[in-house]
Amino acid sequence: xxxxxxxxxxxxxxxxxxxxxxxxxSYSLTVLILSVLHAMHAVGLCLLVGHAGQISLGHGGFYGLxxxxxxxxxxxxxxxxxxxxxxxxxxxxVVAALLGLPTLRLRGHALAMATLGLGIILNILFTEAxxxxxxxxxxxxxxxxxxxxxxxxxxxxxxxxxxxxxGAMMALATNILNSRVGRALRTLHGSxxxxxxxxVDVAQAKRVVFVLSAGFSALAGVLYAHYLTxxxxxxxxxxxxxxxxxMVVLGGMTxxxxxxxxAFLVTWLPEVLRAFENVESLLFGIIxxxxxxxxxxxxxxxxASVGRWIGAxxxxxxxxxxxx
Amino acid sequence: xxxxxxxxxxxxxxxxxxxALNAVDLVVEAGSIHALIGPNGAGxxxxxxxxxxxxxxxxxxxxxxxxxITRLPxxxxxxxxxxxxxxxxxxxxxxxxxxxVAVGAHGSHDLPLWQSLLATPRSRRVxxxxxxxxxxxxxxxGLASVADREACxxxxxxxxxxxxxxxxxxxxxxxxxxxxxxxxxxxETAALGELILRARQAYGxxxxxxxxxxDLVMEVSDQVTVLCFGEVIASASPAEVQRDPRVVxxxxxxxx
Lengths: 324, 256
What we know:
The complex is a heterodimer.
Chain A: H1 5-22, H2 26-51, H3 59-75, H4 81-103, H5 110-128, H6 130-133, E1 139-140, E2 146-147, E3 150-151, H7 155-177, H8 180-190, H9 192-197, H10 202-228, E4 230-231, H11 238-251, H12 256-273, H13 280-294, H14 298-323
Antiparallel strand pairs in A: 1-4, 2-3
Helix pairs in contact in A: 1-7, 2-7, 2-10, 2-11, 2-12, 3-4, 3-5, 3-10, 4-10, 11-12, 12-14
Chain B: E1 4-15, E2 18-29, E3 33-37, H1 44-52, E4 59-64, E5 67-68, H2 74-79, E6 82-84, H3 97-103, H4 113-117, H5 121-141, H6 156-169, E7 174-178, H7 186-203, E8 206-210, H8 214-220, E9 223-228, E10 231-236, H9 238-243, H10 245-252
Parallel strand pairs in B: 3-8, 3-9, 6-7, 7-8
Antiparallel strand pairs in B: 1-2, 1-4, 4-5, 9-10
């Protein structure tokens, strides 16, 4: 089943481009920026969790590792922002590769356990290595995003940049899913025996997609650090890792645009529900349950149903004319 | 004597305390259809797993066209042209028939990931070659019309054909069929026998066939090896095996 590029990448990017016009104001823009950052994780995790069936509970940790590395390199070592960001992503990818090397030879939930542990260890590091990270109160004074001396400080420009990066990630992910690698991932998810008998190096395929998704999260992390100029350990905890999985599940597991929509929903909802104060979390939970109950195929499934419904509505009159 | 494609020598497999295969030898000639028969628990599927690389041997050696493959993992053997089907069909829910079959061609191409990631011209050529091989295999087994259906929604007989097509899509040298006729009715089994013979012709295959259906075994195979409690008790032509008193006692006795 080939995934058409326009539907998978072009339309979602166009919609995201229009969102600041629909929801004007600086507060909305801040939430949109966070949504796009979260969507970057969701795209990678859609490949890892949705397609390859490997659960990671440590991507929040990768997010933080990249963010802190870039912050430390740019502030403590006074490296240019671009170099610091490359360092943050590079270190995170290396850590993910080292973790994946032994873990992904194993079957079952080995990766979930290992990433859970790594996530917790990293979070302790962010909190306790006070001299390096600023400890629980956070790391302040991170320089703003800049490329070749041009500082990207307007939120609108940041949003545009992030949407472009997300678009590139979605394009890469769509390429993967349309290729033999995508088929290999889905096969090894359902049957490792069948996958390896057909020539898929199962451990290698899992490792590659794990490192790729960690790379996406790391890129989100460095962009986050230099956009907000302030980071704290609480943003990169275990709960955030779980929230990332929720985004993918809500999106429909296997759909890239679905995962992005899931990220937007999970980021927006708490902001909207804030008005309800005491019952905020309760409503959040009820809405999530409702989504799973009524759209078991996730937002992507719901979107496809709506698409079919509109298609049927458009076709129907014509069909009657033919008969008449 | 024809060229030997696969030689299994002195293979021993233990699962804990159980000796599943004991000093098993098997010589499969290129272009032949070689049946493995024997009572339940004789080690037939284990031996198939040993050949495909799913089961590691404690002792013994495997050679594919003179190359030692004993220590090669399954995916490397697939790259050398070995494919298999499964006794309990291993078809992944949510994948179309076409995608399921296309996976069979995975091991026939060696392409670095970044090529697929960037959808480079070379990766597109590989995808086209895979699509072509999958379409041909589907056409060959007669499932071209259901290519876009979800594979796991097909009837069992058709799922077995999907598995056969998946194996063929890799244009293999050696195909291992694990009870392809299990659960099929007589008409389907007869058609399958014909299909296996045609596949050998069209794809230049060598086949190792594990099967309980004696009519099918006698119809298609050139050589039959009989396993009993993890040991080879006979290896000869179908007609000779049918007359072998030990084989009749161990396996055929009840049914003929």
